[in-house]
Amino acid sequence: MDFTYTEEQEQLRSSLVSALRRNYTLAQRQDIVASKDGWSPAVWEQLTELGLTAIPFSEEVGGLDGSIVDLVAVAEIFGAHLVAEPWIPSTVLAGGVLAAFPDLPEARSLLEQIAAGEAIGALAHEEGRGTPDPALITMEAERTGEGYTLTGEKRMVLHGAAADIVLVTARLDGELALFIVDGTAPAATKFTTIDGRPAAHLRFEATSAKLIASEAEARVREALNRAIIVLAAETVGAMGALLEQTVEYAHTRQQFGSPIGAFQVIAHRMADMKLAYAKSRATLLHTTAVAEAGQPSAHDIAVLKTQVGRLGRSVGEAAIQIHGGVGMTDELPIGHLHKRILTIDALLGSAEYHARALGAPRAAKVDGSAGDERQPSTTEKELFHADI
To answer: Per the database record, which ranges form the Acyl-CoA dehydrogenase/oxidase C-terminal domain (predicted)?
Structure first.
């Protein structure tokens, strides 16, 4: 397997880094996050012009026919620069699920809007169990004379209260199906994640919905696995930024006449950070290569989510400790990068959840492929009810 980016991907990454350094400084980013919407339509337009909202979709819907490697190449940069625009919820999650149904006219129509950046998508999937496992989705869809209705609650829907396209997973005749609802229809409990991004819990009460696809479980699972890889790339990008900025700080901050990086305890701590970053990035690239070559297994995905979740947290904590009190101030990106890592860890199953999946007996696998009868544990419920 080739674990390096192509020349075109490196050029895209270089151009993106240059643009973000010029036009997306930490101060600018903080103003955007503090704004009413929590993201910038102007920046979104620039990302759209660069083709970043169209990367993973087919040319038939206005996409670029990009690969999972292309998404990872971009996500690393977004993670390092804390890009707050809704690329993950719209392009990766909602768009990724729709792209799993390329033969359906309704899905293609919605994808055209998402790929063009004209509509923001959101995926309402998880129900408070701390896991994205489609086998554990319990929301039921009911047939009516005019179509379908949905009743129940979806938790932690990124951009759920402001999306133009809200996709919802629910059970229809016992099978997982994909629906679309009017973005203004569900009752939303809005909140902001710890890294400053908008999210919502959505309550459906006999809400009218349109069926996109039935018997969708396998394709939804595949799309979520790809999203986990992209989110892991964001974490690795944030880890790299933390490492770079911490090393620079340790070699400029003077204490007792010497840079603090010269002290053995600090040097060892930074060595641990570098090892954690290298291990996480190696796991990310390996899993990405497996996904590019075919279908990563549930084991591959669980290893990746566990690895970047745990090691990402350790790198963030070390960076804050080496920086001292200034590491937690809003004026430095250190605390913001750490918060982004913690937020990603809580999405689509935490590191602890995926670690339990790795250690679970085969008969009780939590990926749904062989353990559909397994019910979420009390701990898993607590994980997701601890809203971030």
So the answer is: 220-358
